[in-house]
Fold each of these.
Amino acid sequence: MQAFQQSQWFAMSFPERLASLRKAKGFTQRSLADKVDIHITQIQRYESGATQPTLDVIRKLSVALSVSADMLIFDDSERGPSDALKLQFEAVSQFDGEELQTAQNVLEGLILKHQAKQSMERQSANKKTAK
């Protein structure tokens, strides 16, 4: 799947994403329903936004559509770290005990610094609106 197409799917709602992925894989609503072992009416309801699938159905849909459940249900902004950070986290996961602890301490420090900055910005904004 091309990155451009993925970014388009992430900008869609779940019903739109499901329909788009189904069509991209060449499935009709009936063929996807058969593959997932549910009634076609359920696929129609999911694609119209009338109902949401169960976790078991999400798993079956992601297998049938050959995509991760994340790609099927989450917007890009709701997902985990960027691809670049994922690679860095994978590299860090191979550190030994002391190196790993150092990396965790550095990350914790950066996170605390960021949270403090956000808190200061919120306090400043609140003071401006209170005046």
Amino acid sequence: MSFARELKRRIRDSVAPVLFASLTGYFCWNATQGDLGLRAYALRQQDLIAAQSNLAHAQADQAAWERRVAALRTNRLDPDVLEERARALLNLADPADIVVPYPPDKKLF
């Protein structure tokens, strides 16, 4: 009988420390592995660095396009150069222009 009493007493005395140890272990595991833990924080930091890199690239691209668009403003645009470039790109000629054909095997320059 005394063995059974001793066993019950030891079990009863060890319930609280085991419960608190398991609770502490649970919180420690969640602090490192959980959704808001240290690993998730490291992943969020990597995502933030990648997003900042993408943002810098997009801002540089936007600045380049803004420079290109600013060059098309009327106060900076030469109409003659624009017309010449448009005709060259579209492969068109003005009806008032004189066109001199040349053979395909001879180059102009």
Amino acid sequence: MNWDDVNARVRGLGLHLLGSVELAALAAAIDIPALAAALEARGFRVPAGSGPVTPAKLEAAIRRAEGNRLALLARWCGGPRVAALAVVYEAEDRRSLRALARGAVEGAAPEARLRGLLPTPALPSRMLEELARLSTPGAIGTTLAIWGHGLAAPFRDVVGQERPDLLALDLGLARVFAERSTAQVSRTEPRLLPDLQLMIDFENVRSALLLTDSSELRPADCWIPGGQALSRAHFISSTGRQNPQDRIEYLIKVLAPTPLAAILQREGPDVAALDRAVLSWRRSEAHRLARLDPLGPMPTLQYVLSVRAELVQLQRLIWGRAMGAPILDRTGEKVA
């Protein structure tokens, strides 16, 4: 598959992403109004007439802007190449649906459920906002089915349940995502398979860390095929280690010498920190491979991952400033 025309446009789009100097300047804003003004100057605009700027409104403006970037890229890519990018587009949908289901169970405010979500062509901002207003995961699933979304199936078992097993729903979403994305990427762009396999391996690591004795799920039913580094047998063996440190050390040993081993060694059991570290590694790897194959899909993959990374960084900046916490850059270094 030829990516040359898309890559040329992506190189131009990449110039509009925020660099470390700009992020440091944004982090120097003394309060939310000052940060909003600085972000507006960089194209992240809160709609006029919506009242005082709040952290939630500012994040919504960023979410819309980043979603527009992915929508524009999808229009440029066309059908076959969008299908190939399922490894990142549908991964964002899965992340969003997982967060929205959890927010519904917890009774969180709609704006809180939307934090950190990245709109995609299949779930643009208006759809995410509609899903964020629904009261149960079952209602989310019913709405997704009406829309014909490919990740609706895992929600069927939770229709009518006010407090479903969220880990089981997470695993269902991950399994359907892995099956659909592996089929699409294998058919359209096999050069993206290593990145997808890493994501599936990470999902299995995540599940291994989250499974406990109190879970009603059988470890043998929780492993997701499609990865390369963590076999079903090793996954089951890891969950049999009740001491969390023993479990982590076993996973590090099994995963060596893959990047997941080093990430797990550095970040420990913090799933959120692991997620950010995996994203950072994927971006770096896409950048390396793009230099080796500049006409392949890696420049485009690197751009999409950079959009996600920018959203994460700006979200942390906004809420860190709102709470008076230190602001960290993409490498975790304090910048304000």
